[in-house]
Amino acid sequence: MKLVLASNNAGKLAELQAMFASLGVQLVRQGELGVPEADEPHRTFVENALAKARNASAHTGLPALADDAGLCVDAFSGLPGVDTAYYATQFGYPKGDDWNVKALLEQMEHVGNRRAALVSTLVAVRSPEDPEPLIAVGRAVGQITREPVGRNGFGFDPVMFIPAFGQTFAQLPPEVKNAHSHRGQAAQQMVQLIRDRWL
């Protein structure tokens, strides 16, 4: 089965391809099929992921998979949440992972409560009108470090310290991170949902 991934993020594609390998599903980035980016006007991960999945399916006629993920910081009442990708731009920096990390560390410099969660919501649809989208949510809870540590991963991985491992996500080998990350948890659920409902 071919699934359109409603993203052009190479890191996301690589992670998800590894996790979906057992299904025999081929993930194709939407950009390779000429799919334009979807609007993401919603304030929840699930609504934005659904909008992206429907958009990709509508443009290709194929089943689609979309992910909306972000960082939810306790001290900021769950923000930046759905605005995570553009977090740095709120503080005059360009858009980008490294700038997001810099902005976050600056904003949290005098914050004692470092608890945060990386949240990933995966949505899959068979068609744009699918009345029963598959929805999987993964959540990895940790502490925001005071400086980046580690070289693996992307996004906030270098500042997301996971107490169970005593390391940041960026310090963990990719296979360990993939098994325990927010996206890894959501992908494992989604693989099972697709196996149970679609195959």
TrEMBL record:
InterPro entries: dITP/XTP_pyrophosphatase, ITPase-like_fam, RdgB/HAM1. It catalyses: ITP + H2O = IMP + diphosphate + H(+); dITP + H2O = dIMP + diphosphate + H(+); XTP + H2O = XMP + diphosphate + H(+). CDD domains: HAM1. Binds 1 Mg(2+) ion per subunit. Substrate binds at residues 7-12, 69, 154-157, 177, 182-183. Pyrophosphatase that catalyzes the hydrolysis of nucleoside triphosphates to their monophosphate derivatives, with a high preference for the non-canonical purine nucleotides XTP (xanthosine triphosphate), dITP (deoxyinosine triphosphate) and ITP. Seems to function as a house-cleaning enzyme that removes non-canonical purine nucleotides from the nucleotide pool, thus preventing their incorporation into DNA/RNA and avoiding chromosomal lesions. Gene3D superfamilies: 3.90.950.10. Belongs to the HAM1 NTPase family. The keyword Metal-binding applies. Its EC number is 3.6.1.66. It is an enzyme of class 3 (hydrolase). It comes from Ramlibacter pallidus. The keyword Ligase does not apply. Its cofactor is Mg(2+). Keywords: Hydrolase, Magnesium, Metal-binding, Nucleotide metabolism, Nucleotide-binding. This is dITP/XTP pyrophosphatase. Homodimer. Mg(2+) binds at residues 39, 68. The active site is at residue 68.
